[in-house]
Automatic annotation (TrEMBL):
<dbReference type="GO" id="GO:0035438">
    <property type="term" value="F:cyclic-di-GMP binding"/>
</dbReference>
<feature type="domain" description="PilZ">
    <location>
        <begin position="3"/>
        <end position="102"/>
    </location>
</feature>
<dbReference type="Pfam" id="PF07238">
    <property type="entry name" value="PilZ"/>
</dbReference>
<dbReference type="InterPro" id="IPR009875">
    <property type="entry name" value="PilZ_domain"/>
</dbReference>
<protein>
    <submittedName>
        <fullName>Pilus assembly protein PilZ</fullName>
    </submittedName>
</protein>
Amino acid sequence: MEHRLSKRIPAKLELLIYKRGMPVATGQVRDASKRGLFIATGYSNAQLNQTLEIEFRFPDRQGRQFRRLKAHVVRKSDHGLGVDFDGIENDTFTISSLVQWLNKHRLPEAHYPEWQSALGR
C-alpha cells in the first residue's frame, strides 16, 4: 500500500526537463503535490536519485515568464518520472504557486483513465 505525505492533484501542464543545464526532454505534469510531481514523458535516461530541473510557465498569466525548479527522480515507469522537491534548495514560493495554479486548474481524476490504470489506480 502506498503512503503519501501530501494529497495529489490531477493536473495537466506542459514543461521542459533539463539535465545539467541542458534541455533533454518535454513532459507534462499529470499529478502534483507540494512535495513532488509525476511527469508523463518518454524520457528514459534519468536515473533514480538524479537531480533534474523542470521548467514551466503558467499559460493564463501575462508575459512569458518561465519558472525553473530542481527535483530528484524517485520513481521511473514506462509512462514517466516521479520527482520530489524534498531536500533540494528551491524557491518555496514557486512550488506553492505551482501547486495553487494546478489546484485551481485541476482536472477530474477520470481525465486520464489509461494513465491511472497503468499505474494501478
